[in-house]
Amino acid sequence: MKYKIFILLMSILITAPSYGFDFRLSQAVADTGKMYDGLPSNGVTTIAFQLDSIIWFGTGGGISQTDDFGESFHSYFTGENLLPYGTITAISTLDSLIWVAGVADTTTPLGKYNMGTGLAVSTNAGLTWKYMKQPLDDRYDDWDIWAGDTVEFLPNTTKISNTTWDMATTPEYTYIVSWAGGLRRTADLGETWQRIPLPADDHSTLGNEHIDYQINPRDPGDGGNHNHKCFSVIAYADTVWVGTANGINRGIVKDDYIQWTKFNAQNSSISGNFVVGLHRQLYKGRETIWSVCLPAENAGEYQGICKSEDGGLNWKVVLENIRGYSVSSYDSVVFAATEKGLYKSIDGENWALFRTAREVGGDLILDQIVYESMVDTRNGIPELWIGTSDGVAKKVLNTMDWEIYRSVLSTQSQNQPLFYAYPNPFAPLHHNQMYGEGHVRFQYDLEAPAKVTLEIFTFAMEPVYKSTLQENSVGDNAIVWNGRTDDGDYVANGTYMCKLTKKSTGKSETGWTKLIIVK
Questions:
Q1: Closest CA to 133 of 73, 92, 193, 188
Q2: How crowded is residue 32: how many other Cβ atoms within 10 Å of its Cβ?
Q3: Per residue, what are the HEC states of 447-495?
Q4: CA–CA distances in Å: residue 66 to residues 53, 345, 392
Q5: Using CA atoms, how far apart are residues 246 and 182, in angstroms rounded to an integer?
Q6: Which among 285, 290, 209 is positioned nearest to 254, based on CA atoms?
Q7: How far is the CA of 48 from the CAs of 25, 51, 63, 93, in angstroms?
Q8: Which helix (H) or strand (E) holds 4?
Q9: Spatial CB neighbours of 283, under 8 Å, sequence gap ≥ 6
């Protein structure tokens, strides 16, 4: 590994039932200081470029950046009056302006839900920040003036399910989207937010006519509209695209309203109405709009990557039955980050799947899912970056070898044990999935080449697994286990005792740690 990051924040994996997207969420870091070295989390779901050399990473533990193309990483402490804590769900940049948004899990009497942990904006590329809470409405704030007409809105008075999943910035506005909060924009760096109406589920257009229904993100049976639940957005010039739970909305911004046209699985050829990702590709003057679609509630919908080359009038599904997360492009080349890995196409029609990111020395990303991809050309050569739940990786485009960057707490640090396991607790059916197998790392260090033996026992000290290898790499190392016994069966849920033995010339060391298995 070219650059090791000696910091580790434990995180948990939850599934938000409202939209089916997995995030690794962390607790807030103490409000002390401003920045620290390294990545805060191995879960990287968002990547954004800024100015000449800055790369931003939205992780499960907060916001991080490199300003030297990966030679070093710096992260920001989180918390109110600093930056949003938890997972960074969205980053938007324009020149020296940058916005970020966060989400965390919370427990209510009805169960676990996600909630927005606020927004932060910087006008000087992250040197100073202005933090603001997740936008909320007063309970009596049930109308707005839109195109000279009074429009009824359902006030959003809670942070629960009110999470900014995406944002987009133009010279005039910054747009944010959420499930409970709908579509909003600000023209004054978050001092005020304007709620924006979208077509109802049974309407395909909306302009400056009178709106005789409430803008309400509840379900239709509760007086709401799925098209008012928002999850993705892109904006440029006078155009804004919004992905909702009822399709794709293209808007043309006018003086005091937005002219909307909606495309969904019922009136066009997108695969599903749940649109969680949007991307605009420009190549040789030709515009292509890409969408990441999931099935909503109507029969016949399915997940897929879709595209339109004529402003949304016609759509085509180009990757069928693939659970996607995001799309990016570089000239004519398109990348689709999906549950099966990273796909690449040079024509938008034919696709090839990348192999798992692996370094020359053998280290690899232990997760086939790729959440984000971006190509950076500012260093003089095109470099492809990917974000996964097992770190971030980059390589020169059209080469084979990757460089992997990951959060690791070195056992060489003072007062650290001989070795430790992470993630811990370990869920072999969910964590670090590679071709149907989950993986846990046992981290240790070597002062010299050694024979390393890992043994795993039940809490009653019955042996279930043993592995021995000759390790010649001095420094931080790891043994990986898939949660199976020597016979190939998954071990049962419970607490396991793990023993690591290092034997080198004239020296032998043994350490123990506990590992909790939860399937």
A1: 193
A2: 9
A3: CCCEEEEEEEEECCCCEEEEEEEEECCCEEEEEEECCECCCCCECCCEE
A4: 8, 28, 12
A5: 13
A6: 209
A7: 20, 10, 11, 7
A8: strand 3-5
A9: 329, 331, 332
pTM of the model: 0.89
Q: What is the mean pLDDT of residues 407-422?
A: 83
Q: Is the pLDDT of residue 218 over 90?
A: yes
DSSP label of 42:
S
Instruction: Give the per-residue pLDDT at 273.
Output: 98
Burial code of 122-146, b = ≥16 C-beta within 10 A, e = fewer?
beebbeebebbebbbbeeeeeebeb
| pLDDT value of residue 245 | 98
Beta strands in 87-178 (DSSP E): 87-94, 97-108, 111-122, 130-132, 143-146, 149-152, 166-169, 174-178
Kindly indicate the confidence band of residue 306, based on its pLDDT and cuts at 50, 70 and 90. very high
Using the structure block, give the residue that is written with the tokens 């039940």. 458
Tens-digit pLDDT profile for residues 429-438: 988 888 788 9
Q: Quick one: pLDDT band at residue 207, thresholds 50, 70, 90?
A: very high
For residue 46, what pLDDT is reported? 97
Asked if 273 and 306 count as a contact pair (C-beta separation under 8 A), the reply is: no
What confidence tier does 82 reach under pLDDT thresholds 50, 70, 90?
A: confident
Whether 7 and 29 have beta carbons less than 8 Å apart is answered as no
Residue 155's pLDDT band (cuts 50, 70, 90): very high
Q: Do the Cβ atoms of 78 and 90 come closer than 8 Å? A: no
Taking a C-beta distance cutoff of 8 angstroms, is the pair 45, 59 a contact?
yes
Q: Identity (one letter) of the amino acid at 511?
A: G
Comparing CA positions, the residue from 72, 129, 124 lying closest to residue 102 is 129
- What are 220-254's pLDDT values in tens digits? 999 999 999 999 999 999 999 999 999 999 999 99
Mapping DSSP onto H, E and C, the string for 129-147 reads: CEEECCCCCCCCCCEEEEC
Number of H helices, E strands in the chain: 0, 42
Q: Starting from the edge strand earliest in sequence, which strands make up the sheet with 54-59, in order?
A: 35-37, 74-76, 62-66, 54-59, 44-50
Q: Return the pLDDT at 32.
A: 40
- Do 58 and 44 meet the contact criterion of CB atoms below 8 Å apart? yes
CB 270, CB 291: distance < 8 Å: yes
Is the predicted pLDDT of residue 21 greater than 50, yes or no? no
Q: Is the pLDDT of residue 190 over 70?
A: yes
DSSP string, 242-309: EEETTEEEEEEE-SS-EEEEEE-TTTS--S-SEEEEEEEEEETTEEEEEEEEE--SSTT---EEEEES
Write the DSSP string, 492-519: PSEEEEEEEEEEETTEEEEEEEEEEE--
Side-chain half-sphere exposure of 429, counting CA atoms within 13 A: 9
